[in-house]
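Reopening this one. Same input as before:
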Amino acid sequence: TRTKMTPLGVFNVICCVLGVAISIYALYVEHARENDASYQAMCDIGPRASCSRVLTSSYSRGLGLVGPVLGEDHPLNVSNAVAGMVYYTIMILLSSCCSLAGVSLLFSIVGTTASIYLSYVLIFVLADLCVVCLGVYVVNSAILASCYVTWKKQKTAKLHVQ
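Same output, byte for byte:
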């Protein structure tokens, strides 16, 4: 018999699909701006609120950490948007398997930690506002909350069975 996905699992999948969509748009903005320096993205809403400026900064690849350490051409120095698509795809697969709630929680903690780091960079280093980035941070926070609740319910259920 096949296990039915829980409402939290469905919520997680919806958040992940939204995360993939935001990541695809971010990648589009990156490529459009790299090919045309005058490109104005929909998310560029002001002089200090430019997602295209943020998404083409040195922090938009490998979290701004991989390039300086391993080299700009290193295979791990991928666009954060591409890394996001991979992350959300993994989270979709994990959401469909209730027995992996602990793994989902661990992955969501890693994703949220990356968001916290990048929000620090956004505010204190780049001094910019990126609507696309904020959307990712909200999605990652929702995924973390959902994964935590799922893990907690699973843990509580196991205690009651024993």
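So the earlier flakiness isn't reproducible anymore. For the record, The two ends are 23 Å apart (CA to CA).
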